[in-house]
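Notes from hallway chat w/ T.B., transcribed later so I don't forget. T.B. wanted the structure written out for a chain they're using in a teaching module, and asked if we could keep both sequence and structure tokens in one place. Agreed to drop them here.
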Amino acid sequence: MRVIIKKDFDAMSETAKDILLGTMSQDKRVNLSITAGRTPVKVYEKLIPYVKDSDDFNNVHYYNFDEIPVENQAEGITISEIRKLYLTPANVSEKNIHKLTVENYEQQDERLALDGGLDAMLIGLGGDGHFCGNMPTTTEFEYATYKIKVTGDEPWFEPSMMHKGLEFVTMGPKSVFKVKHLVLIVNGESKAEMVKKVLQGPVDLAYPASILQLHPNFTVILDEDAAKYLN
């Protein structure tokens, strides 16, 4: 595990951009899985000018690592957000976008293997210690890509964001460990205690991201606020 600590959100994002750009610049097909949410916003802002309308990155193929479907909406929350933040402004060709859905999740791991595996994955860290869709109480470390049905009793259940019976899918720890380079970005003091737990505490299902300590090629990029409790 390599931990990189940068002064602030902008510097952290610049470092993440450089790492992704290095991977994307290889002279071969590159398979990249990227995250939605607030944390990667500046990473994408910095990456888009390099990628937009450039033939240099036609080799890069994109995969979402989890998905939450929305009733009466053609695409789920994750891919819709990734499109808004990066894929659409970067003018990424549709043929280079490979969607994980509730309908095709059982084929995800085989599809990735046939495509050559994921060269890199950019993820964030949940305040409760989740990563991707691997949530406390519904994750087992041996899971590959799997489906979760929300009961409403989960500690992370939020009625304003989901409903009982909702089914969503995610690449599990077993699938994520096949990624050649895993990159975690975290900013802000609000997640500093969880950063300490998942990076320097014991591997514990209560904090699913703690398993990532064991990934063979794991880079963590933090701003100073998120890193404040690390030894």
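Follow-up for T.B.: The radius of gyration is 17 Å. Might be a good example for the class.
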